[in-house]
UniProtKB/TrEMBL annotation:
GO cellular component, one term: cytosol
UniProt catalytic activity: ATP + H2O = ADP + phosphate + H(+); Couples ATP hydrolysis with the unwinding of duplex DNA by translocating in the 3'-5' direction
Residue sites binding ATP per the record: 31-38
Superkingdom of origin organism: Bacteria
Enzyme Commission no: 5.6.2.4
Domain UvrD-like helicase C-terminal, first and last residues per copy: 291-598
Function: Has both ATPase and helicase activities. Unwinds DNA duplexes with 3' to 5' polarity with respect to the bound strand and initiates unwinding most effectively when a single-stranded region is present. Involved in the post-incision events of nucleotide excision repair and methyl-directed mismatch repair.
The protein's name: DNA 3'-5' helicase
GO biological process: recombinational repair; response to radiation
Family per record: Belongs to the helicase family. UvrD subfamily.
Domain UvrD-like helicase ATP-binding: 10-290
GO molecular function: 3'-5' DNA helicase activity; ATP binding; ATP hydrolysis activity; DNA binding
Length: 794
């Protein structure tokens, strides 16, 4: 090949370059965090395109999250110096499999417009199944069955392939229920997440001709985060790469954090066996983090056994040590981090001022997020939650989407059940049972069952009238979605028509007629929400949440804009793992450690390092080290996300699911190498200021850790003292911030009209500690910190 200038190769080191340029045959890149695996993978795509080896649609490139896929697309575009004309097969396993499955749905017993169920629907379905089988859900919870079925699907076991060794699962009825569940899904024209892969693998195995077609089509295969593939994903890859074997996988055994979801690190180790002659590339230079950060992460991961054992180095010497700080409770921790973020924005500790986009808070469990969200709302600090308690999981959003789903897929029974009596249509349990019964009797969907029940007069009275109206509405909305009919013909199945519009008579207001030109899907969505009475339901609702819910519905319609149609949108929602709203402006990111994989931020906060939270209680209760080792890898992932500043914190007390619990600092804190850690003093303890840190490691590690935190009052601390036979220490002073807030609160009295920067106008209805309870005109009743409230003197 003639040597061409290739600027994208210039900023790679020789090992990376080797991995990029060796395009044909199997390549495995096995290397630690931040060594430029993803960068090399991206450059490899560019190299494939530039060298003319493949067109964009011939490259199959698998990333772990949708966010990562978007990022990779942008990076490829940047390296190429031009917008790429679509990389249709760059995405997550799930996103790619949805596309494949839509093309071959009939081979899995589905129609191409199948619905993808989320966990909530899945559980509801399983509950019905358990009830129908007279199984006591209290003893045998649906959630457990769902976990079991997921586990089997992750191993690519269809019901008939579940091995005999699993026969005793779920009180010996697991396999049978799995089979029933699959049948039910087919009847509903639906599949769950696990099915997306399972169906495609099954189709490939049963139809070699189809597999061959795709083997030829996807000329090059690339996989990021390979350490987290499960058996089904692995089989899928092996099938697709089986012909040409042009597959390049990159991963890091130390970052395998999805074992609980069936991922097998073993896949990495098996690569060379499956693809003999595979070229293995190792990278050792870390380009992301400073020396202290890398050394701290290395110190923690060293506690794991059976590693491949990679040593990393960085040219970024020195920098800030990893900071460690303890707090009285989770609220205090959130408050402190909020203040740190604000001072980092201004520039502190010799660091340049940082944008909020440069900072991230990575939590072990999503319930930890609430404290940060509350705090940041109070102080007006912009933040985004990635993959957290999602917008799309809110009740009103799920209701609205059930309407949309039913319009897109009329046989989506779960959606029908969700909305049939929402808003109230006088269709109680009895009427709903009648619909179920009719549907079963005729072997049709619930919606069709409802139509029959109404037509045959099985459901009478007001409820019957409302139900008829609902059925008619749904049919009309669907027509509006499919758009104009062909003159004298049918709407084609795929909804794509080049029809002539037969528009003879003018329409009256509010009337939609067969043949009406297609409205935008935003208009349609609004129409559905209005005409169904759903919007009115919340307008008439007097609870404080109602205005917020109406806001959310508006937001939902807004979100539709980015999609071509309702189906595309529903698919997106079913698949997304992150939900950044595209509002402008910099924001702090809050996400779980799991969601942070592959990402990097100049500043990282790692809160909640307490035994029982991180490592999780479950991993500590387990016999053996497996769970604990996975948690340790998660700690390694967390620390290695940081480029310049990494702060680990823990709280002595924490409210978990409404209950106060005291905690001891995480055992992983003991594993941080002392010389790379700086212990900060919490503001209230020695009169404030961070300079007065006690030397780390004075006394036993555990005592020092606790002494640095305000944990003296906690039962956990007392237990610790009993154990070490120490004299109780003095109580911590009130933190400085609390004092300020108490002063602030004294300026208010109940009944007073006030203004809050985030929630607007309201009246004080109660005062509690440093907080005011305010009945806001728009936001309803909230407790806020007095400091951010202004008295209105009108
Ligand atoms: P992780 O294991 O966390 O996914 P990774 O190995 O995929 O990490 P990348 O995200 O590709 O690492 O790279 C980490 C950082 O180092 C990025 O900011 C990237 O731009 C930079 N980088 C990678 N390779 C080089 C290089 N050869 N020269 C300079 N910077 C590099
Ligand atoms: Mg990466």
């Amino acid at each position: 090949m003639a040597a061409r200038p290739a600027p994208y190769l210039d900023d790679l080191n020789p090992a990376q370059r080797e991995a990029v340029e060796r395009l044909d045959g199997p390549v495995l890149m096995l290397a630690g965090a931040g060594t430029g695996k993803t960068k090399a993978l991206t450059s490899r795509i560019v190299h494939l395109l530039v060298s003319g080896k493949a067109r964009p649609n011939e490259i199959l490139s698998v990333t772990f999250t949708n966010k990562a896929a978007r990022e990779m697309k942008t990076r490829v575009g940047r390296l190429l110096g031009q917008q790429i004309e679509g990389m249709p097969w760059l995405g997550t396993f799930h996103a790619i499999c949805v596309k494949l499955l839509r093309r071959h749905a009939e081979l899995a017993g589905l129609k191409s417009n199948f619905t993808i169920l989320d966990t909530d629907d899945q559980i509801r379905l399983l509950k019905q199944l358990l009830a129908a089988n007279n199984i006591d859900e209290k003893r045998w919870p649906a959630r457990q069955l769902s976990g079991l079925i997921d586990h089997w699907k992750n191993r690519a076991w269809t019901p008939s392939k579940v091995p005999a060794s699993e026969a005793s699962a779920f009180n010996h009825r697991g396999t049978e229920l799995y089979e029933q569940y699959q049948t039910r899904l087919r009847e509903l024209n639906a599949c769950d997440f696990g099915d997306l892969l399972l169906h495609v693998v099954t189709i490939f195995q049963a139809h070699p001709d189809i597999l061959e077609q795709y083997q030829r089509w996807f000329r090059y295969i690339l996989v990021d985060e390979y350490q987290d593939t499960n058996v089904a994903q692995y089989l899928w890859l092996r099938l697709l790469a089986g012909g040409h074997k042009n597959i390049c996988c990159v991963g890091d055994d130390d970052q395998s954090i999805y074992g609980w979801r069936g991922a097998e690190v073993g896949n990495i180790l098996r690569f060379e066996k499956d693809f003999p002659g595979a070229h293995v590339v190792r990278l050792e230079q870390n380009y992301r983090s400073t020396e202290h950060i890398l050394a701290a992460a290395g110190g923690v991961i060293r506690g794991n056994e059976g590693r491949l054992g990679k040593e990393l180095w960085t040219a970024a010497e020195g920098g800030e040590k990893v900071r460690l700080i303890g707090h009285w409770d989770g609220e205090e921790e959130a408050r402190w981090i909020g203040e740190e973020i604000e001072s980092l924005q201004k520039g502190t500790r010799g660091l340049d001022p940082k944008s909020l986009d440069d900072m991230a808070i990575l939590v072990r469990a999503s319930h930890q997020m609430r404290a940060f969200e509350d705090r940041f709302l109070t102080i007006g600090l912009p933040y985004r939650v990635i993959g957290g308690p999602r917008f799309y999981e809110r009740m009103e959003i799920r209701d609205a989407m059930a309407y949309f789903r039913l319009v897109v897929s009329p046989d989506d029974d779960l959606a029908f059940e969700r909305i049939v009596n929402t808003p109230k249509r006088g269709l109680g349990d009895k009427a709903q049972q009648l619909i179920q019964h009719t549907a079963r009797q005729f072997g049709v969907s619930l919606l069709d069952g409802a139509r029959i029940a109404v037509d045959e007069g099985r459901i009478k009275g007001k409820g019957g009238g409302h139900l008829r109206q609902l059925c008619e509405n749904l049919a009309r909305w669907r027509e509006a979605m499919l758009g104009p009919v062909l003159r004298g013909g049918e709407v084609p199945d795929d909804g794509i028509e080049d029809a002539v519009i037969d528009n003879e008579e003018p329409l009256t207001v509010g009337e939609t007629r067969r043949g009406t030109p297609r409205m935008t899907h935003m208009e349609l969505a609004e129409m559905i929400l209005d005409e169904s009475g759903y919007t009115a339901m919340w307008q008439n609702d007097k609870t404080p949440e109602a205005p917020g819910r109406l806001e959310n519905l508006k937001e939902l319609v807004k979100a539709l804009e980015q999609f071509e149609n309702l189906q595309g949108f529903l698919e997106h929602v079913a698949l997304i793992m992150d939900n950044e709203t595209e509002e402008s402006g910099a924001k702090v990111s809050i996400m779980t450690l799991h969601a942070a994989k592959g990402l990097e931020f100049p500043v990282v906060f790692l809160p909640g390092w307490e035994d029982g939270l991180f490592p999780s209680q479950r991993s500590m209760d387990e016999s053996g080290q497996k769970g604990l080792e996975e948690e340790r890898r998660l700690a390694y992932v967390g620390i290695t996300r940081a480029e310049q500043l990494c702060t680990i914190s823990f709280a002595g007390n924490r409210r978990v699911f409404g209950q106060w619990q005291s905690a001891l600092p995480s055992r992983f804190i003991d594993e941080l190498p002392e010389q790379h850690v700086e212990v900060l003093t919490p503001p209230g303890l020695y009169g404030g200021g961070f300079g007065a840190a006690a030397p780390y490691g004075a006394g036993s590690g555990l005592e020092t850790r606790a002494a640095e935190a305000n944990v003296y009052n906690s039962p956990g601390w007392k237990r610790l003292q009993e154990r070490s036979g120490q004299r109780p220490m003095s109580q911590p002073r009130e933190s400085r911030n609390t004092v300020i807030d108490l002063q602030a609160v004294s300026a208010f009295e109940t009944g007073q009209r006030v203004f809050h920067q985030k929630f607007g106008y309201g009246a004080v209805i109660g005062i509690e500690g440093d907080k005011l309870e305010i009945d806001f005109e728009k936001a309803g009743v909230k407790k806020v910190v007095a400091r951010f409230v202004h008295a209105e003197n009108d």
